[in-house]
Amino acid sequence: MHIRRIFLDTAPVIYFVEGHPVFAAAVEEIFQRLQRHEWTAVVSPITLAECLVLPLQSKNKRLAELFRAALVQGAGVEFCLIDDVAAEMAAELRARYRLTLADSMQVAVALVNGCEAFLTNDEHLRRVQEIPVWLVSELEGKASE
Predict the structure, then answer these.
(1) Which strands, in side-by-side order, build the sheet including 77-79?
(2) For site-directed labelling of 8, which of 31, 61, 77, 122 has its Cα 20 to 30 A away?
(3) What angle do CA 29, 34, 39 make, to 5 degrees?
(4) What's the chain's Rg over C-alpha atoms?
(5) CATH class given for the domain over 5-144
(6) Can you give the residue ranges of every domain in the chain?
(7) Helix axes 10-18, 24-35, angle to 10 degrees
């Protein structure tokens, strides 16, 4: 499968920005492809909101700014808003797969914006059949597809 657009769920972004000891290396190639403009990453306001929770709780302004910069102005990143089409699709996905509202919105934004893969580390999202779901824990070799 030839990937040009990939949706980034919250966990992979946190792993990269915070330098997670286990998973940062796994997502490194994805972010390199974005910086080289080989791929475009799609993110939503949900991704940004979820990434900002801990930095805001801990009053870590620097980390909050790193997340904002990566998600709103990052190389190869497209910040996509949630519109009525995505909202209706999210409701359908939520009903079909019994996803949380946030997860169904994330998948809907990916689909509405033409993503060919959805990068997460949430195993339960594998139920979704409309888009290939990649787990960070199983990333080896995926980024070279």
Answers:
(1) 77-79, 40-43, 5-8, 117-120, 133-135
(2) 61
(3) 100
(4) 14
(5) alpha beta
(6) 5-144
(7) 90
Q: Determine contact, residues 76/9, Cβ cutoff 8 Å.
A: no
87 phi and psi angles, rounded to 5 deg: -65, -45
Sequence length of the chain is: 145
Asked if 91 and 34 count as a contact pair (C-beta separation under 8 A), the reply is no
Whether this model's pTM surpasses 0.85: yes
pLDDT tens, per residue, the chain with 145 residues: 588 999 999 999 999 999 998 898 889 989 999 989 999 999 999 999 999 999 999 999 999 999 999 999 988 999 999 999 999 999 999 999 999 999 999 999 999 999 999 999 999 999 999 999 999 989 865 555 5
* 134: three-class secondary structure by DSSP: strand
Q: Are 41 and 78 in contact (CB under 8 A)?
A: yes
What's the token pair of residue 33? 């492809």
